[in-house]
Amino acid sequence: MTSHAAPALPDTVAVTVELPKQVLELLAPTSEEAAACLEQLALIELFRRGEVSSGWAAERLGMSKWDFIELLAAHEVPYFNLSAEELRQDVEASRKHRARLTGSPSPTPAP
Asked: What pLDDT digit, counting tens, does each position of 38-50 carry?
């Protein structure tokens, strides 16, 4: 795993974590790469919980927002976390907005 970590920011704190050697070997070949992996995992979890934005997490990791979205996918963490009803409402709102912009009637949604 290649480290993409951004340089330390002024408001960062170093954390020491003791792991069994077997865990370190499963995470990455070196302790530095394992630390970068743990940083990624922490930010993925904070995003999953809704504590941080994808842009903020990407910036902390020194990567683009798109790269962070791909990282989420690699860890099976959804970028969008909508219920079926929320998604239906968003699609309907988008249809109505498009109809207003184009001046054409909103297409009837499929059942």
From this structure: 999 999 999 999 8
